[in-house]
Amino acid sequence: MINIGIYDEHHLMGQGLKLLLDQVDDFDVLFCADGKEQLMNLVQNKSLNILVLTIHDTSVRTMNLIVRLSLLNPKARLLILAFDNSEDMIVKIVKSKAKGILGRDASQKELIEAIRTLRNGFDYFNRSINQMVLNQYIDKLEAPEEKTEGLNSLSERQIEVLKLWGRSYSNQEIADELCISVRTVDAHKNHIMQKLQLKSTVELVKFSIKNNIIEI
Length: 216
Prior knowledge:
The protein has helices at 11-22, 36-42, 60-72, 87-95, 108-119, 127-138, 148-152, 156-166, 171-178, 182-196, 201-210, and strands spanning 2-7, 27-33, 50-55, 77-82, 100-102, 124-125. By secondary structure, it is of the alpha/beta class. The chain has two domains: 2-136, Rossmann fold, CATH 3.40.50; 145-210, Orthogonal Bundle (Arc Repressor Mutant, subunit A). Strand 3 (50-55), helix 3 and strand 4 form a beta-alpha-beta unit. Helix 4 packs across helix 6 (127-138), helix 6 (127-138) crosses helix 11 (201-210) and helix 8 (156-166) packs across helix 10 (182-196). The protein is globular, with a radius of gyration of 18 Å.
């Protein structure tokens, strides 16, 4: 089971998320909080895997909340539901301790996929966020520098997975395209990160652009 916590300052919205996630067989919603102090106490639950956190602004108070939650329970991975899709907000969240971000255009399917992806140890951005992250880092890339050693360490199938991911395919879509399971897609992503010695999705984006794996 994937143990999930929910925080939304709007009680009805939080309860709506809970009802949605309770329908998934391998999801167990441990709590649904609408107050920060209540959240601080509940998030320390050692069995918590994923915390779904709805935020409406990127004030210093909100960003500090994300950091505090990460410190209170480092094992619980944070999935941010951002109802403001502005570039400024997304960039700030990317720089925070959150491991996943969904924009307001995210579907129920993407929410479920994001939770499972985070539980498997990977970061998750939905399509609109992923494209924004790509655009944000294109202009900041250093002069092209071939990393042939790292690139040559990837198998043909791993290159295929990386190309589809760069085209904003979801894990399920990659699996369907390559006729493999979602679990195998996750395994390929994990091996890619290990082989390239990269620690984050952003580093993977930069590597892929530099090596012409992702076409902009």
